[in-house]
Design goal:
Blueprint (H helix, E strand, L loop, with lengths): L1 E16 L3 H10 L2 E16 L3 E5 L6 H8 L7 E6 L8 H5 L2 E5 L11 H11 L4 H14 L15 H13 L5 E5 L7 H18 L2 E5 L3 H7 L2 E6 L2 E7 H8 L2 E8 L11 E7 L2 E7 L5 H8 L4 E8 L2 H16 L1
Parallel strand pairs: 3-7, 3-8, 5-6, 6-7
Antiparallel strand pairs: 1-2, 1-4, 8-9, 10-12, 10-13, 11-12
């Protein structure tokens, strides 16, 4: 069953242009010039109930604008959308009872209140009977392991604890869809992993549909089976995570500091990105070259420090964007 349906959705913004200097400022007051930006440009997609979808792209790609339209905050210029059978533009209040939102960079909790008091407050907002709120808080407190700090003011919580509480606050009314915008931003690796486990658990046990935006490859790789990539308002790719990984995540970056220079050359599966003194930066295609073999070529005894990372998400999106442009020619 499709819980989100989007057809030919568009959002245009009219922005005032200003020339440089004082003259330009004065001119823009009396003879303003405008340009139109297609923040979201004729996109269509659907999301199945219970799915965890990654909706990703670079800054300014149209992600936030799309989410704001799906949650009823912004009205589309044209196109159709249904979220849990509700038109967000026409029935925003009704929709609010069926969705939850968590923005990693924006707090929705009152920081001077405890998590418990916040949860009670949110329960009251959603007209949940007091007895039912207490039961719900108890369930979520156990699931998200909040016992230690549920009665501690939010301002005294760590970032990881606060994010957990933000998610719980968004689940208090049992939403069918949860919009997560950068939920692990700024968290250390251990806390990130805990948040990911909780998201997966929530999806599995509660059947909550997750609409996720993130710049963290780990979030996408460990949580999502499907990825939609958007750039400049257009959908560039809508595919499974397995296909994306096969085509675009099969490369790793090795940055290594050596005791002495190693004579490593470009060959199939190995590309030297940077070589300066005893520092080396190499791109490895793991479908063509085994990582262990590359380490041997570098000579383990000569390695002082090494870091292995994924290709940056921005680079992956750029590659996909270039491929999309090439196919359209």
């Amino acid at each position: 069953m499709k819980i989100i349906e989007v057809k030919n959705l568009n959002k245009k913004f009219k922005i005032k242009e200003k020339e440089k200097g004082i003259k330009g400022s004065i001119k823009s007051i009396f003879k303003p010039k405008y340009k139109t930006i297609n923040a979201v440009d004729d996109i269509s997609f659907s999301v199945e109930e219970g799915e965890i979808l990654a909706f990703i792209g670079p800054n300014g790609a149209g992600k936030s604008t799309t989410i704001k339209m799906l949650t009823g905050i912004l009205y589309p210029t044209s196109g159709d959308m249904m979220v849990n059978g509700i038109n967000p533009s026409k029935e925003r209040k009704k929709l609010a009872y069926t969705i939850g939102t968590v923005f990693g960079q924006k707090e929705q909790l009152w920081t001077h209140l405890t998590p418990y008091d916040n949860f009670k407050f949110f329960g009251a907002i959603y007209d949940i009977p007091n007895k039912e709120i207490e039961t719900r808080i108890e369930e979520l407190k156990t699931t998200f392991e909040l016992d230690e700090f549920i009665n501690t003011p939010v301002r005294n919580l760590s970032l990881g604890q606060r994010i957990r509480c933000e998610i719980v606050a968004s689940l208090i009314h049992k939403p069918k869809i949860l919009f997560l915008d950068e939920p692990t931003i700024g968290l250390d690796p251990v806390v990130k992993e805990n948040i990911r486990k909780l998201i997966k658990q929530m999806n599995k046990e509660l059947g909550t549909t997750i609409f996720l935006t993130s710049h963290d490859i780990g979030d996408i790789e460990k949580l999502c089976k499907r990825v939609i990539i958007i750039n400049k308002g257009k959908i560039l790719m809508d595919d499974t995570m397995n296909n994306l990984k096969y085509h675009y995540l099969n490369k790793k970056i090795i940055e290594v500091k050596l005791k002495e220079k190693v004579n490593l050359q470009d060959e199939e599966g190995i590309s030297i990105l940077k070589s300066k003194g005893n520092n080396l930066k190499v791109e490895i295609d793991i479908t063509k070259k085994d990582m262990a073999d590359v380490i041997k070529l570098l000579d383990v005894d000569k390695i002082i420090d090494i870091n292995i990372s994924n290709i940056p998400l921005e680079d992956i999106i750029t590659s996909i964007y270039k491929d999309a442009k090439a196919l359209s020619i």
